[in-house]
Write a structure and sequence with these properties.
Helix content is 40%, strand content 20%. The protein is globular. It has one domain (2-185): Carbonic anhydrase (Beta-carbonic Anhydrase, Chain A). It contains eight helices and six strands; from the N terminus they run H-E-H-E-H-E-H-H-H-H-H-E-E-E. By secondary structure, the chain is an alpha/beta fold. The structure holds zinc ion.
Length: 186
C-alpha cells in the first residue's frame, strides 16, 4: 500500500481540521486508510483568518498545501464534545495569562464564547460548552473564506466546506445544516 502511495503520490480529496485531543483521531473515526485524508490538527480545531505573512502560521500553511497543491474537494472543520481548548476558553478569567500560548490561540474564537454567554446565560456549564464548541466551528468556517484561494474555489463549486461535530459521549456525528442553522445527525 505504501509503495503504491509513493509511486502514485497522495491524492486525498478531503482535508480535515481536527483537534489534537487524543480521543478524536479523524482517520480512526472515519475508518480511513493512509492517503485518504489530509489532516491538520491543532488545539480546538481552529482556523485563523487570513493575516499578514508575519509569524509562523502552521495551520494556514497546511491549509494552503491541501488546497493549492493537493486540490482537495472538501474541507471539514471537525469539532467535538468535551473539548479541553473550548473549556479553557469558557473559563474566561484564565484567558489573560501572559505566558500561555493556548489562551492567545483560543482568542481566535472569543466571539463564539461571547455569543453563547449572551444568548444562553442561564444554561448549565455543560450546555454552554457544547454550544461554544459548535459556534467555534462556524467561526472557523467563516475564517476559511477569508483566504482568496479558498473562497474562489467555493464560488466555482470545486471546493465544499463542512462543519461537523463529533459527540464523543454518544459516538454520534453531527453536521451543520445552513437551512435550520443547527447541527443535525448526519
Ligand atoms: Zn478539542
Amino acid at each position: 500500500m505504501y509503495r503504491k502511495l509513493v509511486e502514485n503520490g497522495q491524492t486525498p480529496k478531503v482535508l480535515i481540521v481536527g483537534c489534537c485531543d487524543s480521543r478524536v483521531d479523524p482517520a480512526l473515526i472515519f475508518d480511513c486508510a493512509p492517503g485518504d485524508l489530509f489532516v491538520i490538527r491543532n488545539v480546538a480545531n481552529l482556523v485563523p483568518p487570513a493575516e499578514d505573512r508575519v509569524g509562523h502560521h502552521g495551520t494556514t500553511a497546511a491549509l494552503e498545501y491541501g488546497v493549492r497543491n493537493l486540490d482537495v474537494a472538501h474541507i471539514v472543520v471537525l469539532g467535538h464534545a468535551q473539548c479541553g481548548g473550548i473549556r479553557n476558553l469558557m473559563q474566561a478569567e484564565r484567558l489573560n495569562q501572559a505566558d500561555s500560548f493556548i489562551d492567545d490561540w483560543m482568542k481566535l474564537v472569543e466571539t463564539a464564547r461571547t455569543s453563547v454567554m449572551l444568548n444562553m446565560p442561564e444554561a448549565s456549564k455543560d450546555k454552554q460548552q457544547r454550544a461554544c464548541e459548535q459556534q467555534a466551528i462556524l467561526v472557523s468556517l467563516k475564517n476559511l473564506q477569508t483566504f482568496s484561494w479558498i473562497s474562489e474555489r467555493v464560488d466555482q463549486g470545486s471546493l465544499t466546506l463542512h462543519g461537523w461535530y463529533f459527540d464523543i459521549d454518544e459516538g454520534q456525528l453531527l453536521g451543520y445544516d445552513a437551512d435550520t442553522q443547527s447541527f443535525i445527525k448526519l
